[in-house]
Amino acid sequence: MTALEHEDSPVYLKLRASIAAAILRGQYRAGDQLPSVRALAAEHGANPLTVAKAYQSFQDDGYVEVRRGVGMFVLPGAVEKLRIAERERFLTGYWPRVKEHIALLGLDAHELLDRETA
Q: Measured in Å, how far apart are the chain's first and last C-alpha atoms?
């Protein structure tokens, strides 16, 4: 599970988060073709209709384009647009819960930032 996912999220949102993370990591760059719906469904053990729904959300948001008979491709500027959208999603959706949990546990945010990961 990536930082962009949440355990209780619907499957298509988990798939969307996985694809978004891959784009943000540079696994798929502008002009690159995304895996076919069937290939991604098989890779994740998901229903192809669920993968299609995740892909449709990327198309609706203007991150990818469909080339009929060829596949789905990452559009120029998608990484920057996606990074901005995911930052906003993190700051409004995840950060308040993380901040609340930090306070609940009595942790010091500065110590957490300085802490080395294991």
A: 18
